[in-house]
Amino acid sequence: RPCFPAGCAAPYGSMAATGAAAALVQYVVLRGDLGRPPRSWPLGAVVAQGCHAALAAAHAHRQHPDTRAYLEMGGAMRTVVLEAPDEAALTALAETLKQNSIDHEVWTEQPENTATCLALRPYPKDQVHQHLKKFKLLK
């Protein structure tokens, strides 16, 4: 069992036992057009965008109890990867999330200054799903 320094949140084992931690999910929304012509990014480059966004969101919100509980889940973490058709759809989603006070991070690839992906911090699915239901799973 991990040891927590003074002032940190208590372990989340009791949450997992009640199912609260198991309901946490991190949503990652990647631009689908990056992997298709005319851009045709390599698969690894597209996957890296999702990794960057997910880590940025987890880091930015690392003190939030849901993020801490999610990270403590180890191999039981649940991540859902969705597809935004293009940059405009990704930008519109980011604005919707901002308007609804949903914590997220947009990953912008440099030096191109192109928004490629966004990730929410881990949330209970029922708190955020309504904002994401129009996006399909990335294929």
From TrEMBL:
> Has UniProt tagged this entry with the keyword Hydrolase?
yes
EC identifiers of the protein: 3.1.1.29
Q: Which reaction does it catalyse?
A: an N-acyl-L-alpha-aminoacyl-tRNA + H2O = an N-acyl-L-amino acid + a tRNA + H(+)
Gene3D superfamilies for the chain: Bit1
Q: Which SUPFAM superfamilies match?
A: Peptidyl-tRNA hydrolase II
Superkingdom of origin organism: Eukaryota
**Can you provide one Gene Ontology molecular function annotated for this UniProt record?**
peptidyl-tRNA hydrolase activity
User: Which UniProt keywords are present, listed alphabetically?
Assistant: Hydrolase
InterPro entries to which the protein is assigned, alphabetical:
Pep_tRNA_hydro_II_dom_sf, PTH2, PTRHD1
Q: What is this protein called?
A: peptidyl-tRNA hydrolase
Organism of this sequence: Chunga burmeisteri
